[in-house]
C-alpha cells in the first residue's frame, strides 16, 4: 500500500502522480488521502460553512482523480482508493499510514514559507521514521 497526501496544491498533485507510478511499478494499491482540517476556535462560529467547504474540496479532489484516471487509463493502471479523514494533516496521514500498514508515504513539499521554521507535514513524517517517506517538490 502506497499512501499519498493530496490537498489540491500543485506539489500534492505531483506527489500523487509519483505515488501512482510507484504503486504501479510495485503492483501495490494507492491510497490517496485528503485530510479535512479541524475547526479551530476562530472558525467555530462558521462551523457548518467550513465543514461544507472541506466536504466540497474532498468531492472536487475525488472528481479530479476520476477524470485523471479516465484520461490516462492506458497509462495509469493502478488500483486506488480515495480516503478522507478529519484532523491535523500530519496526524491524519500518520494514522492512515499506520492503519493501512503503508509500504511508503508520498507527500508534496510544503509551499508555505512559515513551514521552514515550524516544520512541514513532510518533515514531521520523515522524522517519525515509521515508513519510507518521499517528498516530491
TrEMBL record:
SUPFAM superfamilies the record matches: Adenine nucleotide alpha hydrolases-like (SSF52402)
Sequence ranges assigned to domain UspA in this UniProt record: 2-137
Superkingdom of source: Bacteria
Similarity comment text for this entry: Belongs to the universal stress protein A family.
Protein name per UniProt: Universal stress protein
Amino acid at each position: 500500500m502506497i499512501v499519498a497526501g493530496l490537498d489540491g496544491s500543485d506539489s500534492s498533485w505531483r506527489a500523487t502522480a509519483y505515488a501512482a507510478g510507484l504503486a504501479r511499478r510495485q503492483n501495490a494499491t494507492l491510497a490517496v488521502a485528503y485530510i479535512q482540517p479541524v475547526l479551530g476556535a476562530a472558525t467555530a462560529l462558521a462551523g457548518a460553512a467550513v465543514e461544507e467547504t472541506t466536504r466540497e474540496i474532498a468531492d472536487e479532489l475525488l472528481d479530479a482523480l476520476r477524470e485523471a484516471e479516465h484520461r490516462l487509463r492506458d497509462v495509469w493502471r493502478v488500483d486506488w482508493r480515495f480516503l478522507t479523514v478529519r484532523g491535523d494533516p500530519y496526524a491524519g496521514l500518520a494514522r492512515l499510514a499506520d492503519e493501512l500498514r503503508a509500504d511508503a508515504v508520498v507527500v508534496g513539499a510544503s509551499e508555505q514559507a512559515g513551514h521552514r521554521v515550524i516544520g512541514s507535514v513532510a518533515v514531521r513524517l520523515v522524522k517519525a521514521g515509521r515508513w519510507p517517506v518521499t517528498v516530491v517538490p
